[in-house]
Amino acid sequence: MDGYRGFLALLVSALLVGFLSVIFTLVWVLHYREGLSWDGKASEFNWHPVLVVTGFIFIQGIAIIVYRLPWTWKCSKLLMKSIHAGLNAVAAILAIISLVAVFDFHNTLNIPNMYSLHSWIGLSVVIFYILQLLLGFLVFLLPLAPLSLRGFLMPIHVYSGLLIFGTVIATALMGVTEKLLFSLENPAYSSFPPEGVFTNTLGLLILVFGALIFWIVTRPQWKRPKEPNSILLQPNGGAPEGVEGSMAVNFGNTDKSDSELNSEAAARKRNVALDEASQRSTM
Question: pTM of the predicted model, to two decimals?
Answer without folding.
Answer: 0.79
